[in-house]
Design a protein that fits this description.
The protein has helices spanning 4-17, 19-43, 70-85, 93-100, 104-137, 149-176, 180-190, 193-200, 208-213, 227-251. The chain is mainly alpha-helical and 254 residues long.
Length: 254
C-alpha cells in the first residue's frame, strides 16, 4: 500500500483538472438533455407509430429515452482516448509518471479505475436526466422522479455499457500509445456501424458496442444479443483488451 494513496491522488488530480474531462463531461450532459426535451416534446399528442417520431415503431416505456444515448456515448470514448494517449504526446509526461511511481501495474490499475468511475458518473448523470426529461415532458404516465424497476435496470445497463466501452477504448489507446487509434476503431462502432452490420451479419452482435447495446435495448426487436449474454460479451472484450494493455504497459520500454 506504500505509495498507493499519493499515486491515486496524483492521477485523480490529472483527471479532475484536465479541461477535457469537464468539457466532454459537461457536453455529454448538457447536449443530451435538450435533445431529450425536443424529442419528448414533439411526441406529445402524436400517435406512437407516427413517422415523424424518432422511431416510427412504438417503443415500450422501459426503453423510451435511451435512443438519446449516442451523443454522450461518443464523448466518453473521446475522453477515454485522451486519458490513454495524451501522456505519450510531445512532453512525454508518462516518463515523469513512471519515474515517480515505478510500479507500472499499479499505475495502470489506478488510471483504469479512475476512468471507470468518471465515465460511470457521466453516463449515469447524462442518462438519468435524459430519462427524467423524457417521461416528464413526454407525459408518458411514468413518474419521472421514481421511474420504474425496468427503467432503472436499463439505466444501469447503459451505464455499464458506456463504462465498458470507455475501458475498451482506453485499452486500445494504451496499446497503441496514441489518442488516434481508439477514435478510429471505437467511435464508428458507437455511432452505429456495429448496429448497421447486424442487419447483414449476425456475428456483428458480438462486436463490443453492439454487445453492450443489449443491456438497454428492447430484446424483442431481435437486433441484439440477450441482455445477460451481451453484458458478458462486452465485459469479455474489455477484460481481454485491458489485460493485453496492462501486459504491454508493464513490459514495454518507453
Amino acid at each position: 500500500m506504500n505509495g498507493l494513496l499519493p499515486l491515486v491522488r496524483s492521477e485523480a488530480t490529472k483527471l479532475r483538472t484536465g479541461r477535457a474531462t469537464w468539457i466532454l463531461g459537461a457536453a455529454a450532459v448538457l447536449g443530451s438533455w435538450p435533445m431529450a426535451w425536443a424529442n419528448a416534446a414533439t411526441a406529445v399528442g402524436v400517435a406512437s407509430d407516427d413517422p415523424r417520431l424518432f422511431s416510427s415503431e412504438p417503443i415500450p416505456l422501459a426503453f423510451q429515452g435511451f435512443e438519446m444515448a449516442g451523443f454522450g456515448y461518443v464523448l466518453v470514448v473521446v475522453l477515454s482516448a485522451l486519458w490513454a494517449g495524451s501522456e505519450y504526446g510531445g512532453n512525454q509526461q508518462i516518463r515523469t509518471t513512471l519515474l515517480a511511481t515505478p510500479q507500472r501495474l499499479r499505475v495502470f490499475a489506478t488510471k483504469t479505475l479512475l476512468l471507470a468511475i468518471t465515465v460511470a458518473a457521466i453516463a449515469f448523470s447524462t442518462m438519468w436526466g435524459t430519462l427524467v426529461i423524457t417521461h416528464l415532458v413526454g407525459e408518458t404516465g411514468v413518474d419521472p422522479w421514481t421511474l420504474n424497476p425496468a427503467i432503472w435496470a436499463n439505466l444501469g445497463g447503459v451505464t455499464v455499457a458506456w463504462t465498458l466501452t470507455a475501458l475498451t477504448a482506453f485499452a486500445v489507446g494504451v496499446l497503441a500509445r496514441t489518442v488516434i487509434l481508439p477514435l478510429i476503431l471505437v467511435v464508428p462502432l458507437v455511432i452505429g456501424v456495429g448496429d448497421f452490420l447486424t442487419v447483414f451479419w449476425a456475428g456483428a452482435k458480438y462486436l463490443p458496442v453492439a454487445a453492450g447495446a443489449a443491456l438497454s435495448s428492447n430484446p424483442a426487436t431481435g437486433t441484439y444479443l440477450d441482455p445477460p449474454l451481451g453484458g458478458i460479451v462486452q465485459a469479455g472484450w474489455a477484460t481481454v483488451l485491458l489485460t493485453a494493455a496492462a501486459v504491454s504497459f508493464v513490459r514495454r520500454d518507453l
